């Protein structure tokens, strides 16, 4: 009998051929000279190769030039970027998979070298203890500028436009990047949000920005095509919260009212330990009415068990998908996995991007 992980399912309005998800993976191979435009032949081939996944979540794609935090990451705010994404989404669909755009704004986790000289923005003027990787080398992220109250609606509008552009580019939906210490997460967690107006202080106030963004994109493309990525306890990008259980329980309750398609949970520390206290993911699975996509360090056995037992509706794999374009086939056969080469994660060119062998090529 086929294990449930490899059986079709439906997440919101999106029909999937299986429950293996390709997690969003920054690869820094967009065309910066053209304005952070994706769609080169190797970009198309990269996504086409991995279209055995039931669902692909694109690499993070910024909703504005100021939302960029890494070199050569693609955008979703210009017509040229939309046109660049079109052959990628078409290739994925032609290969039988579905793809959603992860739209993000990095907030304070950047440097003027990456934002056209503009000072980073954030809910509050709290500098993160992180290093930005720029063409000038590694530089410390500076103190961001706290957003004025009347600017926040404009940022929400950038997310709405990003969602509209994603659909125009052929994506099946969007995932809001609300995890890993980026802008939505910065508003949510009190380690970065020190505001005293309606966007700060109480849990309800700190969740306001996230929910306004959700409402904007749902109004634009429909709740069944909207998901969000959350990381309640990860310390990524120097972020923490004093009571993640209460904060994210409130957020989940509010997301239920909006009937969004999925939450993509990073269980534990991003790319690190899973057993970090502070949030009950099993509780979240039961509390959230939409699809629960699990992520962080899943092996084949863990993924099969999670879906079979109902702990998750689908499981997302990150690094494994970098090195194994035919990951679903390998998981089905319990075949050995290629080992990813971190030296090629973020550098230009095809090496470590589209040259990992499939099982057929290795035979």
Short note summarizing the structure:
The protein has 363 residues and is an alpha/beta fold. It is 31% helix and 16% strand. The model has no long low-confidence stretch (mean pLDDT 97).
Kindly list the characteristics that best describe this protein.
363 residues, alpha/beta, TIM Barrel, globular
Describe it for me?
The protein is α/β, with parallel strands linked by helices and 363 residues long. It has one domain (4-362): Aldolase class I (TIM Barrel), CATH 3.20.20. The chain is 31% helix and 16% strand. The chain has 12 helices and 15 strands. The protein has helices at residues 41-49, 79-94, 152-168, 183-188, 203-206, 208-221, 244-258, 281-287, 300-309, 319-323, 327-333, 359-362, and strands at 9-11, 14-16, 20-22, 55-57, 61-62, 98-104, 121-122, 131-134, 137-140, 145-146, 173-177, 226-230, 262-266, 291-295, 314-317. The strands form 4 sheets. The protein has an 8-stranded parallel β-barrel, surrounded by 4 helices. It has a two-stranded antiparallel sheet with strand order 1-2. Strands 7-10 form a two-stranded parallel sheet. Helix 3 runs parallel beside helix 6. The longest helix is centred in the middle third of the chain and has 17 residues, at 152-168. The chain is globular and about 60 Å long. The chain starts with 8 loop residues before the first strand and ends with a helix.
């Amino acid at each position: 009998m086929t294990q449930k992980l490899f059986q079709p399912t439906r997440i919101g309005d999106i029909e999937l051929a299986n429950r293996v998800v390709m997690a969003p993976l920054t690869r820094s191979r967009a065309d910066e000279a053209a304005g952070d435009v994706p769609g080169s032949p190797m970009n198309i081939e990269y996504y086409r190769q991995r279209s055995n996944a039931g669902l692909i979540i694109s690499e993070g794609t910024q909703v504005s030039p100021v939302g960029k935090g890494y070199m050569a990451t693609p955008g979703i705010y210009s017509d040229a970027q939309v046109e660049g994404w079109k052959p990628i989404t078409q290739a994925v669909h032609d290969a039988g998979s579905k793809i959603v755009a992860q739209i993000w704004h990095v907030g304070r986790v950047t440097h003027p070298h990456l934002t056209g000289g503009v000072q980073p923005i954030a809910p509050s003027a709290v500098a993160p203890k992180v290093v930005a990787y720029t063409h000038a080398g590694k530089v410390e992220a500076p103190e961001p500028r706290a957003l004025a109250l009347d600017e926040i609606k404009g940022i929400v509008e950038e997310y709405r436009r990003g969602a509209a552009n994603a659909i125009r580019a052929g994506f099946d939906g969007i995932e809001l990047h609300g995890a890993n210490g980026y802008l939505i997460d910065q508003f949510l967690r009190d380690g970065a949000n020190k505001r005293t107006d309606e966007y700060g202080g109480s849990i309800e106030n700190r969740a306001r920005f996230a929910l306004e963004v959700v409402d904007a994109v749902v109004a634009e493309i429909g709740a069944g095509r909207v998901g969000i990525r959350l990381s309640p306890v990860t310390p990524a990008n120097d972020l923490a919260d004093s009571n993640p259980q209460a904060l994210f329980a409130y957020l989940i309750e509010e997301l239920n009212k909006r009937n969004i398609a999925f939450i993509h949970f990073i269980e534990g520390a991003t790319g690190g330990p899973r057993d970090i206290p502070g949030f009950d993911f099993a509780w979240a699975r039961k509390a959230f009415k939409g699809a629960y996509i699990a992520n962080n360090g899943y092996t084949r056995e863990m993924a099969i068990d999670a879906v079979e037992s109902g702990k998750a509706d689908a499981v997302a794999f990150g690094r494994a998908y970098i090195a194994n374009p035919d990951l679903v086939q390998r998981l089905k056969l319990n075949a050995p996995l290629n080992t990813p080469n971190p030296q090629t994660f973020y550098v230009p060119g095809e090496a470590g991007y589209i040259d990992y062998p499939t099982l057929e090529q290795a035979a």
